[in-house]
Automatic annotation (TrEMBL):
Family: Belongs to the GTP cyclohydrolase I type 2/NIF3 family.
Alphabetized UniProt keyword annotations: Metal-binding
Source organism of the structure: Pseudonocardia thermophila
Name of the protein described by the UniProt record: GTP cyclohydrolase 1 type 2 homolog
Claim: Metal-binding is one of the keywords in the record: yes
Any Gene Ontology CC annotation: cytoplasm
Binding site for a divalent metal cation: H65, H66, D104, H336, E340
Subunit structure: Homohexamer.
UniProt GO MF annotations: metal ion binding
A Pfam family it matches: DUF34_NIF3
Taxonomic placement: Bacteria, Bacillati, Actinomycetota, Actinomycetes, Pseudonocardiales
Amino acid sequence: MTTVADVIAALESAYPPRLAADWDAVGLVCGDPADEVRSVLIAVDPVAATVDEAVESGAQLLVTHHPLLLRGVHGVGADTPKGALVHRLVRAGAALFTAHTNADSADPGVSDALAAALGLTVEGPLQPAPEPPLDKIVTFVPVGPAITAVHEALAAAGAGQIGDYSHCSFATAGTGQFKPLPGANPTIGEIGQLERVAETKLEMVLPRHRRDAVVAALRAAHPYEEPAFDLLELAPIPSSRGLGRIGALPEPEPLSVFTERVAAALPATAWGVRAAGDPDLLVQRVAVCGGAGDSALSAAVAAGVDVYVTADLRHHPAAEHVLAHPSGPALVDVAHWASEWPWCEQAADVVRAATGGSVDVRVSTLRTDPWTLGRTRPS
């Protein structure tokens, strides 16, 4: 039996919650993790139409990109629009799960799906996110059983975790030297006497947020009254995660043709696809950012791409960009919902792979873009 918790575990492995922005609200919104899942629906938006689709199709889990309850609430009464959706899901025995900015920054994530839809070969993130910051603790333990005790205590506190491995460390032999002064209570040696002790130098990495816990564990487990240790901040390590992606087309093509490519690759919306730039500009290197991406406009300029594809570009930043960069990169602006919809199939593949085909996984094709009409004045 596949449970809600099983599907969530697969999705959170692909889109780790720690990648979410601190203002975001991701994870299980409603539902029982222990409930069985036979059918999953994946959509961009948790709106009435997709909730109805999930309930009427018999799905036990609705997975969306956008949060339902992004801002704090004091209640989910059924007499409010969002509360009514929660009640409808709960009554139907359907859970709701959200992967938002964690899916934006994951590798692969939302922008990888957009890049793939446009036929790009991805080179890397547009705005790389460094790996979580690490420290290294180096301590010196007298040879004997204390080495194992200290090592186990540090590991239990969070040190020595590298990828899928725990208890990672490096040990070297050496000689420690100290002289206990009046007032000391030495484990080894006598007051006023210089001591030289065979010791093991033990080195382990740790997440920076576990620093206090690891130091406390060292002090508690080390046999010395005053254990010697070094605590070092390691340099940031670049990663393949982050917002947006940079990629390349197989062959250069004019901006006018590329704009048609974008329109053909994404679902139709009233917003459509619009471009700013010379229609004859040759395009090959492309930056993309699913969702609202004008905050990454300067990163696209710095990357030296030919065109930047994103959603929700504002008038003034776009106008200022065109004025400052007449030779490019050009801009292609698409509807927010359309830019993120390709991610749904990516998330569906994550669930299918984790459940081995035992769960029916579908992607909603309902257009939930809020803009429903678009008109252009006849020329």
